[in-house]
């Protein structure tokens, strides 16, 4: 087993141990994952240096938006201090993800193969978001109480940006960094490398939601897996948009 895979599995086992042993409702599982992914991000930044100026700016914007999203929960400037729990990991992970993307390839922020590729990504994201929103509404079992507000849309920036960058894409970037010695894509990845990458992109993020086994598996299958496939097979932007749509519909129909 390659060393970087061992590191990821040790991190996961630690996260799993926290989830199983420390079952208190107020235990900050999200902070544990944020610490893990921030550590991976710092490692990649040290190895690859910062990305280009363009992606530094995008990273800062992502960080600001994921922090401002907390104003949707509470209209109090002091909530932004708490929001840094998402803003800082988002900044670090974005730096790391974009640095690996520029130097190694293997994934994209937004597809640009043809002039229509960005539009195709958006349409795919919208379609996936609608389908997953319907599934989410049907399986949630919650009473529908339609209530639209711009604040609820603001909140969606948190899962759309923070969770996709700092809880999912960073694992992809970490695996890509070690697997791709050039831009040859999957050629440098063996089966276990791929299993590790997809597992880490899918399971840790769902595990920290604090649900029991069956709901966690449902989240993995119906939401984390599609978002992961969008990131890996299309681009990160499509996963962000799709994730944001799912939460926007959920918050509007069933509340926060």
Main sheet makeup: none
Q: How confident is the prediction overall: mean pLDDT?
A: 91
What is the approximate shape?
globular
- Radius of gyration (CA) equals 18 Å
Q: What structural class do the secondary elements suggest?
A: mainly alpha
Give the strand tally: 0
Helical run tally: 10
Low-confidence stretches: none
Beta-strand portion reads under 5%
N-C termini distance: 42 Å
Q: What is the H-and-E element order?
A: HHHHHHHHHH
Residue share in helix: over 70%
Secondary-structure blueprint of this entry?
Layout (H helix, E strand, L loop, with lengths): L2 H19 L7 H20 L4 H16 L10 H26 L12 H24 L9 H6 L1 H23 L11 H17 L5 H22 L1 H19 L2
Helix pairs in contact: 1-2, 1-8, 2-4, 2-7, 3-4, 3-7, 4-7, 5-9, 5-10, 7-8, 7-9, 7-10, 8-9, 9-10
Q: What is this entry, summarized?
A:
This protein is mainly alpha-helical and 256 residues long. It contains ten helices and no strands. Helix 3 packs antiparallel against helix 4, helix 7 packs antiparallel against helix 10 and helix 9 packs antiparallel against helix 10.
Characterise the protein shown here.
The model has no long low-confidence stretch (mean pLDDT 91). The chain starts with a helix and ends with a helix. The chain is mostly helical and 256 residues long. It is built from 10 helices and no strands.
């Amino acid at each position: 087993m390659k060393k970087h895979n061992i590191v990821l599995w040790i991190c996961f086992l630690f996260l799993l141990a926290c989830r199983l042993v420390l079952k208190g409702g107020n235990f900050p599982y999200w902070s544990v994952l944020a610490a893990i992914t921030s550590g991976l991000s710092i490692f990649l930044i040290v190895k690859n240096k910062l990305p280009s100026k363009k992606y530094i700016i995008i990273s800062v914007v992502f960080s600001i938006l994921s922090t401002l999203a907390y104003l949707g929960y509470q209209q109090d400037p002091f909530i932004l201090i708490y929001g840094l729990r998402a803003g800082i990991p988002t900044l670090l992970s974005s730096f790391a993800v974009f640095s690996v993307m520029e130097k190694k390839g293997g994934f994209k922020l937004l597809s640009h193969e043809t002039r229509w590729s960005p539009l195709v990504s958006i349409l795919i994201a919208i379609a996936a978001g609608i389908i997953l929103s319907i599934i989410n509404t049907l399986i949630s079992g919650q009473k529908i109480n339609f209530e639209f507000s711009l604040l609820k849309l603001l909140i969606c920036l948190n899962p759309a940006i923070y969770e996709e960058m700092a809880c999912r894409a960073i694992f992809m970037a970490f695996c890509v960094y070690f697997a791709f010695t050039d831009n040859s894509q999957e050629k440098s990845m063996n089966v276990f490398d791929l299993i590790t990458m997809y597992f880490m992109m899918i399971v840790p993020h769902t595990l920290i939601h604090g649900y029991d086994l069956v709901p966690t598996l449902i989240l993995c299958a119906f939401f984390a897996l599609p978002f992961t496939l969008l990131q890996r097979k299309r681009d990160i932007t499509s996963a962000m948009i799709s994730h944001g749509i799912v939460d926007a519909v959920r918050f509007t129909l069933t509340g926060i």
